[in-house]
Amino acid sequence: MRALVYIGPEQLELEEMARPVPEPGEALVKIRYAGICGTDLHLWHGEMSAVRPPVVVGHELVGEVLEDTTGRLAAGQRVAVEPLLVCGVCRACREGASHVCRSLRVQGVHANGGAAEFLATPTERLHPIQDGLSWEAAACTEPASVAVHMVRRAGVELGDTVLVLGGGPIGFLVASVARAAGARRVLVSEVSQSRLALCEKAGIETIDATQADAVQVIRDLTDGEGADVVVEAVGHPATVAQVVAACRVRGRILVGGIGGAPSPVDLANVVFKELTLVGSRVYESRDMATALSLLGSGALNVDGLVTRTVPLEDAVVDGYQRLRDSRDEMKVLLEP
Predict the structure, then answer these.
(1) Which of 1, 181, 292, 313 is the most buried (most CB within 10 A)?
(2) Is the pLDDT confidence value at 263 over 90?
(3) Cβ-based neighbours of 258, under 8 Å, separated by 6 or more
(4) Where would I find the beta strands (DSSP E) of 95-142?
(5) Catalytically annotated residues
C-alpha cells in the first residue's frame, strides 16, 4: 500500500509498504480521508521530540471497515477513527481518563497512522458514521471531538457569553459547539479575513483583531464585566495575554492552543477575580460520539470548513506547505 511517512524534520515521503494485518481485537480500515492539522505541521517541522521516525502520519481519519477480528463491525461499515493508544494501567486510565494516559500514544504521531490506504486499529476505537453524513463532514469528526471536549472542560452553560480567541478550524468548531451547548452569545476574534468570513457565514459573531481589541469589545458588550467563558485556541503569546482581562469575575478560562514558547499569564488577576483556569487535551470517547451526533443531526454545520482535498502524492506541496503558508486554508484532507 502507499503511505505518507515522516522521515525527519521537513521530510515526508510517499512509500510503498505491506498492508497491515489486524491483530486480535483490531479491524482493518480502508482510509477515505486523512485530515491535516496543526499537530501534523509541528511534527513535520521536527518540533515533537517524542516522535520516533519513520512513522506513517495521519490521525484525523475516516474510512470503511474491510475486516473486523471481533465481529462487532460489518464489512463496509463507515467509521471515524479514535487514534488514541493507551496503557490501561496508569492512574489516569484506571480512573476513566485514559485520554490523558501517562503513556498516551497517538496513531499518526507516535505510531503508524492513516495517511495511507489502510490502517489496522483497535475495533473499540472505531465509531460508526451515520447514514446521510457526507464523507467530507465525517472527516471533521476528530477535530470536532477536540472542540466538544474543550467546551465540556470550559463548563459552557445555557445563557453564557463565550469569547473564542482564534478562528482556525478548532476555534471555529469550539464556537459552533458552544452555540449548540446553549451559549447565548459566542464571539470569535481572528486576524484572517477568510476565517472571519467563514465564521460570519455560520452565523457566529466576529471581532476583526486587526481593527479592534477583543478585550475592549467583550467588555463593551458586557457592561464592563467580560465573558463568562474565554477559550484560547491559538497558543500565541498575544492571545494568551488577553484571556484574564477578557474574563469576568469568577469566569472560566480554557487554554486549548499549544504554542512553541512560554506565554505570559496575569496570575495576580486570576487570584483577584477568582477565575477558573483549565487545560484541555485531545478528547474522551464520549466526545467523539457527541461530535458525530452533532454532525449527523446538523446541529454542527461544517460547510466550508474543508477548503481542499489533495491526493496523497501531492500531500507536501498542496497540503502541508499550503497550511503552513496561508491562513486562508482551514481543513485540508488527504485522499489515499
Answers:
(1) 292
(2) no
(3) 38, 42, 235
(4) 105-106, 118-122, 126-128
(5) 39, 42
- CB contact at 8 A, 327 and 195: yes
Burial of 318 (0-12, 13-18, 19+ CB in 10 A): middle
Q: How many residues does the chain have?
A: 336
Rounded distance between C-alpha atoms, residue 324 and residue 312, angstroms? 17
For residue 309, give the C-alpha cell.
482535498
Per-residue model confidence as pLDDT tens digits over 12-46: 999 999 999 999 999 999 999 999 999 999 999 99
Return the CATH number of 2-140+305-335, one of 3.40.50.2300, 3.90.180.10, 3.30.1330.40, 3.40.1550.20. 3.90.180.10
Nine-digit cell string for 175: 464556537
- Distance between CA atoms of 72 and 88, rounded to whole angstroms? 21
Helices vs. strands in the chain: H and E counts, helices first = 12, 18
151 DSSP assignment: H
Q: What is the pLDDT of residue 116?
A: 98
